[in-house]
Specification:
alpha+beta, Bacterial polysaccharide co-polymerase-like, 3 domains, five-stranded antiparallel sheet, 5 strands, about 60% helix, about 10% strand, rod-shaped, disordered N terminus
Length: about 425
């Protein structure tokens, strides 16, 4: 490679004024000259060097950082160190259990089993603990407004306002009562805060008692729902059986016949006897006709006997026909009515037996499934104050202030540079 000539310099502004031809203008002293034989090549001038100075925008950023980050952080630290009232925590843990009692036949093959928690019942309990109804119950029982608003004069940030509404109390409840629910295991953990350790434990115990009462109510409602339909059907069956028996009793009182079947059998026996006597009388009549003459008193007497027997047979047969005379009895109608009433009574008895069996089975099934609240952590009593967590609050506050200051400052300079 050919070396450049000695008279070529990359930065001509460093040459002495004597080397500059007089014919060249002095208006562009920083423009480099092109080397010989390579026209059009320009070399950029060196960057201008500025001395570091504390400018106006630096003062603005420092002031905003001071009043937007440092001062609020120091105020927060001072409040936490001087005014923040110590809070004590009480922990309690429980789950909803369902006990299934086996039937007597199943008891022979094993013992009573206890199933896991019901997911639906635990979800209901989880929502109940965060609801307004429980807050009102605990407030009426322990006066939550008084307990949580006691340090309000010295600590208005962490204490409850005494004149707050029930909605404010529910919002404050979510700050002081932290609930953790594992849907996989069905375990519920509570952390209750108060300004006195005994008060925190009392609130946690009250929450457990009210939750247990609610679960017991769910169990009672489930049993009532399981047996209500069976109980209604049993009531209908009892009323139907009562009406059937009353109708049968009224029939017997009206006809003065206890059992139409037995009465008909007696009437049939009488009719058979009359038929037999009629046959004997006819035989006697035929014998007298062969051995006596007309007008014999014995013949007249036998004829009279035959007529009487036939008349009686006719009357007895009319009792088994339709539309007997006023003096007789229409056994066909009576027997048909008795059969209808008897069938209604038997059907009512069978329906009552089935309804009673269903009701007993529903009650047994309801007793087999019983819900209750099982506590695996009883309400604890704190010995030291762990809340408010001052280090965590200061760290989060500083991080939030710094991020907010950085974002606002970037937005400000972006808007200013666009103008």
């Amino acid at each position: 490679m050919q070396k450049p000539t000695a008279d070529f310099k990359l930065f001509p502004e460093q040459d002495s004024p004597a080397t500059v031809p007089p014919s060249q203008p002095s208006a562009q002293p920083n423009r480099p000259t092109a080397p010989a034989g390579r026209p059009g090549l320009h070399v950029a001038p060196p960057a201008e060097t500025y001395s570091a100075r504390f400018r106006r925008r630096h003062r603005f950023a420092a002031l905003t950082f001071l009043f937007g980050v440092i001062v609020p952080f120091l105020v927060t630290a001072w409040y936490l160190a001087v005014n923040a009232t110590p809070q004590y925590a009480s922990s309690v843990g429980f789950s909803v259990q369902r006990e299934e009692i086996s039937s007597p036949l199943e008891i022979l093959g094993g013992v009573t089993g206890i199933s896991g928690s019901s997911t639906r019942d635990t979800d209901i309990l989880y929502a109940f603990i965060q609801g307004q109804e429980l807050v009102q119950r605990i407030d009426s029982r322990l006066a939550l407004r008084v307990l949580w608003s006691r340090p309000h004069g010295s600590d208005p940030v962490f204490a409850f306002a005494p004149d707050g509404s029930i909605e404010d109390l529910v919002d404050y409840w979510s700050r002081m009562v932290r609930i953790s629910y594992d849907s996989g295991t069905g375990l519920i953990d509570l952390r209750v805060l108060a300004f006195d350790p005994h008060e925190a434990q009392a609130i946690a115990q009250a929450i457990f008692d009210e939750s247990s009462t609610m679960i017991n109510g769910l169990s009672t409602t489930a049993r009532e729902d399981a047996t209500r339909y069976a109980r209604e059907e049993l009531g209908h069956a009892v009323e139907r059986l009562k009406q059937a028996r009353e109708a049968l009793t009224d029939y017997r009182s009206r006809t003065r016949i206890v059992d139409p079947v037995a009465d008909v059998q007696g009437q049939l026996g009488l009719l058979n006897t009359l038929q037999q006597q009629l046959g004997e009388a006819l035989v006697d009549y035929d014998l007298l006709l062969e051995t006596t003459q007309a007008g014999d008193p014995r013949l007249v007497q036998v004829e009279r006997r035959v007529e009487v027997i036939r008349s009686r047979i006719a009357e007895e047969r009319e009792k088994f026909g339709i539309g007997g005379d006023a003096a007789g009895t229409d056994y066909a109608s009576l027997f048909a009515e008795f059969e209808r009433l008897n069938v209604d009574r038997e059907f009512a008895e069978q329906a009552y037996t089935a309804a009673l069996a269903t009701y007993d089975a529903a009650q047994a099934e309801a007793r087999r499934q019983s819900r209750y609240l099982a506590a695996y952590i009883r309400p604890t009593l704190a010995e030291t104050s762990q809340y408010p967590q001052k280090g965590l609050i200061l760290g989060v506050t500083l991080l939030f202030l710094a991020l907010s200051w950085s974002i606002l400052l970037l937005i400000y300079y972006s808007v200013r540079d666009r103008r």
